[in-house]
Amino acid sequence: xxxxxxxxxLSQPCRAVYIFAKKNSxxxxxxxxxxxxxxxxxxxFAQISPLQKVPVLKDGDFTLTESVAILLYxxxxxxxxxxxxxxxxxxxxxVDEYLAWQHTALRRNCLRALWxxxxxxxxxxxxxxxxxxxxTLAKLDxxxxxLEDKFLQDKAFLAGPHVSLADLVAITELMHPxxxxxxxxxDRPKLAAWRQRVEAAVGEVLFQEAHEVILKxxxxxxxxxxxxxxxxxxxxxxxx
Amino acid sequence: xxxxxxxxxLSASCRAVYIFAKKNGxxxxxxFVDLLKGHHHSKEYIEINPLRKLPSLKDGKFILSESVAILFYxxxxxxxxxxxxxxxxxxxxxVDEFMAWQHTAIQLPMNKILWIKLLxxxxxxxxxxxxxxxxxxxxxxxxxxxFEEKFLQDKMFITGDCISLADLVALVEMMQPMGGNxxxxxxxxxxxxxxxxxxxxxxSGLFWEAHQRLMTLAEWDxxxxxxxxxxxxxxxxxxxx
Lengths: 240, 241
Known about the structure:
The complex is a heterodimer.
Chain A: E1 3-7, H1 12-23, E2 29-32, H2 43-48, E3 56-59, E4 62-65, H3 67-77, H4 89-101, H5 106-123, H6 130-152, H7 165-179, H8 189-202, H9 204-215, H10 225-239
Parallel strand pairs in A: 1-2
Antiparallel strand pairs in A: 1-3, 3-4
Helix pairs in contact in A: 1-3, 1-7, 1-9, 5-6, 5-7
Chain B: E1 3-7, H1 12-23, E2 29-32, H2 43-48, E3 56-59, E4 62-65, H3 67-77, H4 89-124, H5 130-152, H6 165-174, H7 189-202, H8 204-215, H9 227-239
Parallel strand pairs in B: 1-2
Antiparallel strand pairs in B: 1-3, 3-4
């Protein structure tokens, strides 16, 4: 059995892994784990990964979670072009810096924006107060400013002149609030220009394909009540 | 000017960087940024790191934040022994996996315990509701269980027979609640044994030197706290209610 990737493209980290593998022509079996159907909570999936999260990589007997770890594993095993994770000491440090920062910053705010604006009301039938939504979007705004001012600055890409893992992880995060209908790039010409560059570097067809699911998130079917019950506490823990 | 590390050893991330640099004989200037005095908000420090967080590294003109990035940088630049970040594909991936997971699973909750048990009561004069405390402690217990089952298993250290960056980062974070007199190793002999192994591998002298400030935090006279900072902390308390 070759490389298997357990993914749901609804999830930002899954999109980053998917795009990276496709872009670098890394052969893999796609194992879809439908989060909205609660498939990640099945016993079968718990055998693959006890934490019951996606993405998961399975390479023979070796199983790996955490998208950053998976991206680095693929980078090393498949010897991808240097710009994704440069050999240069300082350039690499910049990528590491972004990949570390984003866990508790951009990731969290993009997730909350999607769930507060769309997924809680539409998918789970749980209304979110306008105040809560406004607070979440305000925090997202602050994080976007940090992304621009500290990480992007006047460079073409986050870690330097070439696209890297940092840009891939960042752009897939930002598509979460975009999928929720937030105008993330409006009034942010610098970020909008960077997005175009990343999309061009990845390839527009691949980029669109990877984002088809999230862009339709607003059309999610309401969750089955049994599924909703199973999902609720995990969702609340995830977005707290 | 050589390598500079901007640190306050109250922070677990700073302790990881400090211990690693010292253990590997990496020469650096210790630039103390006193969190208790709010020096991370000073004009001088904001120029180093506009996000006002610690640790930061400054190597000539190159400035770097995020302890995980700093540790990797030091490993590479100073060619530290390979057991810290093993070159084997699978082993290295396990370290990466832990370093990614720990941000939200270990570091954040362990720090929250310190706030709940010590800092919030000390600064605001109020206790965090017992229900919230219990919730937090339950989360920590779950995550520690996961740490043992997935990362440690029956090995001496996370990657096997030798200490790596993962053990260093894990331990300094698990020490954080000690500042509030909460010992996560109590009644857990497997974890306690691992803790001792890591301490010995690092050197007990260095380990306890790095933890001195944390262990005496309860003695801090917080009456000197800036009123604006105090207000922000009181607002933090509201989040727990």
